[in-house]
């Protein structure tokens, strides 16, 4: 089977300043991952686009609890290319860590440049819900007078709308993040019209004003270079794929209960779960580890390279996406670009994707089971 690749494309952000400084804090934190999440992929795509458009006028910033570091286009571009190669090429390729990647000279030179730049010439860009705005002291150090233009790519407001699906501290952390970055000088680009609607509701409720609000929905384009797909162990029978972090809002529990019934009915239909184990998921893990009837039908994969995931998708009967809420749903776009059948939750973000797929309420287990069994024999 030939290698089937897909490229994630994010429309260019509308930024008009002469200089930009892009926050790579999340990308750096996830640098050792062999496979980027949807948010990671968007973050990387936006960073690469800024490098191409602003060239030497694109700077980079990394922050954590200890402080922040600013560095130049050459260092940032090199590091982003290494991340891209690791996620889309060789997952075992090394990614340089900050000490070896950032010389003290580069650090001092670029960092000394930032205070000399008038605020109207520079835009701080963050394309994840991480980075400098999560560290109030570092944010104040960079922008003590709140004069800096900023541009936020917003993926969702799930921590505020559905805190029950998050870690206990996430809502408070996200509120602090928004308080730090949102201002009349902050433009926001949303990943979907649904996310834009959620943001507008939040701004109205909190009586806040910001700059312009745009929508730039990512697109996925399939391509092939003729190389063979990697060999990945697969179930012997027909199987479906669920792709994403194992967490409550992804609704894995619905699928596992369906597969318990399929096992009891002696149906040889398998489920491949691809994704790391997340948070607040005790019931899901209990079923994965202790529910005996599904042990031979449910297969858990972690740490896969992008092309290994693609190989599993192409061999499957379809992608199952029963989430309770999403800001967008990158795996659905990627599967659709590869021609993989889909079964999706009937939620606003998925309706907006306008894909040729059945939309089912995330609590309608009987209909999910009916669609799965019908597609398995198709």
From TrEMBL:
Record-linked SUPFAM superfamilies: UDP-Glycosyltransferase/glycogen phosphorylase
Record's keyword annotation contains Cell division: no
Highest taxon of source: Bacteria
Keywords from the UniProt entry: Transferase
GO MF term set: glycosyltransferase activity
Glycosyl transferase family domain span: 238-354
Cross-referenced Gene3D superfamilies: Glycogen Phosphorylase B (3.40.50.2000)
Pfam families in the record: Glycos_transf_1 (PF00534)
Protein's name in the database: Glycosyltransferase family 1 protein
Species whose genome carries this gene: Rhizobium deserti
